[in-house]
Amino acid sequence: MKAIKIILCLLLVIVTTSGCLKYDVLRDNPNNPISVPPALLFTAVIPRPVSSFTDSYQDPQYHTFASADSGPVNYKYGTGSFYYGDKIKDNDKSTTYSAISSALRNIDKMVKEAESAKTPVYPILAKFLKAYYYITMTRQMGDIPLTEALKGAEIPKPRYDSQKSVFIQCLNWLDEANTELGAFITANPGASVDGDIYYTGDLRKWQKAINAYTVRVLILLSKKENDADVNVKSRFQAIIQNPSKYPLFISLSDNMQITHRDEDGFRGTYNPTAGILKEGVIYADTYIDLLKSYQDPRLPIIADPTPKALAANPTNEAAVRADFASYAGASAAATAIDNNLKKNNGEFSRPNEKRFWNFTGQPSILLGYSEQELNIAEAANRGWIATDAKTHYDNGVKASMDFYNAPVGDYLTSKAPYISGPAGLKRILEQQYLSFAENSGWEAWFLNRRTGVPEYKFSNVNNITKFPVRWAYPTAENTDNTANYRAALTAQFGSEIDDRDQLMWLLK
């Protein structure tokens, strides 16, 4: 995937810098195009999934890293270090904020090029993409510029929109994208979209993805279920009650995911060229212990038994792998030194070598069927929709099992059956956490921030004793857009302090 990222970065640079040229005073060079095909821009702005065993899933989401020179265990959700307490550096083009800003500019460019090329499907999909990126930013930071954003010299210092208004606008964009795409498909049967990295141009699958993503956003707003302006319950009901207008994923084949292959730019992160990962990656006990508590058949598929357990019964490996006591994860409440010592003593499970230690691993999911079904089960459990929570719970769990080719057996009837009420809600959330394992980017973290599930461990021997709840704004906001930045802080938090522990509207 690295090669793809490099190519896309170059494309973004070409597109964003080309706008500075004054073509009316330059002589056209037939060897240098003065426009970019919308399909090329579409490829560049489509969000990408995160490959397994990268920092986004580390400490203690699903795995941790232990080596002789490891520092204190971080609750690390970002490349290399814990970013929540730091201001985002605006000159660092690898940061989420800069990448999203570039993507949004290129979405606008894509729309203009599509209008010139008379390809209306791209402006429709642009509404989905804009909603995706603005929601990504607002759920990280809180209030953000939207209405006046990306106006350049016209509005160099955009005001911030409230987080509530950002969500309403994005939900409206998503609804418009679904309606307009449905009408386009009806009027143009057999039409496809070029530049698609997920569905080879299948617009029907894109329409499903838009609605599956809308379901994710509505669940994200669970604390605002009674806000009449946002209208969470009614929006959810509209989707569930009208499947012909709002088609949803129906199987794993609808997943927005990348299937890796042994070619440059398409390999997963955890592969035989990354020996340091095999040496250092061990599973976190948060993940392993929950699987063990349910006697979950996914466990022997995702993990190898501890070396200690294998050494204790060297003549019957099959029996060791079938024994749930053979698996153990490292504690994020322990020091990296302690975890490393125990790792060297053979006390921790590593990723299943047969499944993961190769160039293809498992597909990297951005948005999946299992998540969708468990989100619907949660909405039904909360009483938002009149549908059977158990049906969607079973669908979601079975889909996750199928992703791993794990036998379901009696799991849904005796080991982890759906139950109603608050206990049932907790079980749905636990299964959602398990389904997010090493996929879907930050969704497990946002699940925990919203619900407290799963229950993570903390310790004063490490860098953090509690989870922060938001990212700080980019440092340039305080220098380049001072008045609006400080007004947004005061409006949200009652002071001009930009702190990682302050509660945004979404969480109140």
TrEMBL record:
InterPro entries in the record: SusD-like_2 (IPR041662), TPR-like_helical_dom_sf (IPR011990)
Domain of life assignment: Bacteria
TM region(s), chain numbering: none
The protein's name: Starch-binding associating with outer membrane
Species: Pedobacter lusitanus
Lineage summary: Bacteria, Pseudomonadati, Bacteroidota, Sphingobacteriia, Sphingobacteriales
